[in-house]
Amino acid sequence: MASSTREKIIQLGDDLLRKQGFNAFSYADISKPLQIKNAAVHYHFPSKQDLAFAIAQWHKDVFDRFSRKMATKEPKDRLKTFLNFYHSIHLSEKVDIIGAFATDWYSLGPNVQTEVQEFTELVIEWLTELIQEGMDLGQFRKTQNTRTTALKILSSIFASTQLVRITSDQDFTRVKNSILEELLN
Amino acid sequence: MASSTREKIIQLGDDLLRKQGFNAFSYADISKPLQIKNAAVHYHFPSKQDLAFAIAQWHKDVFDRFSRKMATKEPKDRLKTFLNFYHSIHLSEKVDIIGAFATDWYSLGPNVQTEVQEFTELVIEWLTELIQEGMDLGQFRKTQNTRTTALKILSSIFASTQLVRITSDQDFTRVKNSILEELLN
DNA sequence: TTGCAAACCTACTAGTAAATAAGTAAATTA
DNA sequence: TAATTTACTTATTTACTAGTAGGTTTGCAA
């Protein structure tokens, strides 16, 4: 079964949110490419907040499947896959969803904010555990606070998807490689 | 002489840009608090792009004065002041201007983009020189590529102003302190 | 004191935004 | 097969957006 209209709207909404920002796209930007009418988008997502909620929820689902699939792999490879994922974001000229939601934070309704918070905490905890495990296995250099290390990795990699819009592509690869190098023993 | 209307518009525009995003505020959001009419804002800044340009220019000017004032201080103190500056951004519930411009990048006209690029390069170069100097003086740990280190510091600190909107205040302080600790010998 | 420009205001336009009401065709279920 | 639901469309509304044309006031300069 090909993806439903609902799924296509979420995908396109996510694309637009991360390329242009929540307030920079309209329902027309979604309905036109999908060759449906404005009201059809409202049928699936009565308000733009409902769409934002669905996008946040989708990211939670995807990350959940991702972390399950990665569970068996060793910390180093898990981190590499994570960083490569951000590389693909960079190549598609989007920014990370966390940064996109963060800069548009005050445009989001309370339930969307909660969903975004849950997703973000999921990512941070996953990274924190990964780092702890890598340290326990002697693959990673010891750091004082694993959550802080996780926060620094997350923030520098997601900020890079933003920063390189302004500077250059090379800067992304530099930061990406450096994150791994710094952690490895 | 108290600050002119023009200056007040730039200040308020900058506040709104960094609190809500470029597409989330209107000229009405500027004219109302300043108790002037919509057209008065258009008198000073015919288009919203002109306002964005002036905001970018203002940041360049401020950073220029900042770097001049800091020139005599030693690297460690320069970095501390820089990080404290970001702490004040965090406290005012804004995000950093670089991240704000980056996420709204495709809403900006070419001349605004150029101005933002110049400002950002100014900051990166200032940080790079600071790190090199600190390393030469033996205050900072040696790193392979000083620009990469600068990029990582900049990205993790400006992303933190975004991330802590979603997570918690503590996370900002953690990252901030860790940046300094990691660099110091 | 006249002329003129800076800094506004009044009043408006054209376009776009999100959102809704009411209707329809096709599929699903009872 | 009758009733209902799903997935839309057509048509419209309300509200706001950036931007403009033209008039007014104020202060300064010739």
Describe this structure in words.
- 2 copies of one chain form a homodimer.
- Chain A is 76% helix and 0% strand.
- With 185 residues, chain A is mostly helical.
- Chain A has helices spanning 5-20, 27-34, 38-44, 48-70, 75-91, 97-103, 110-136, 146-166, 169-183.
- Chain A has a domain at 56-183: Tetracycline Repressor, domain 2, CATH 1.10.357.10.
- The structure holds a DNA duplex (30 and 30 nucleotides).
* Count of DSSP-assigned helices of chain A: 9
The CATH superfamily name of the domain at 56-183 in chain A is Tetracycline Repressor, domain 2
CATH fold label of the domain at 56-183 in chain A: Tetracycline Repressor, domain 2
The CATH architecture term of the domain at 56-183 in chain A is: Orthogonal Bundle
How much of the polypeptide of chain A forms β-strand, as a percent range? under 5%
Largest sheet report of chain A: none
Structural class of chain A: mainly alpha
Count the E strands of chain A.
Answer: 0
Q: Which chains make the largest contact?
A: A-B, 47 and 47 residues
**Could you tell me the radius of gyration of chain A in angstroms?**
18 Å
**What's the CATH C level of the domain at 56-183 in chain A?**
Mainly Alpha
Note the overall shape of chain A.
elongated
Oligomer: homodimer
- Percent of residues in helices of chain A comes to over 70%
Order of helical and strand elements of chain A = HHHHHHHHH
N- to C-terminal separation of chain A? 47 Å
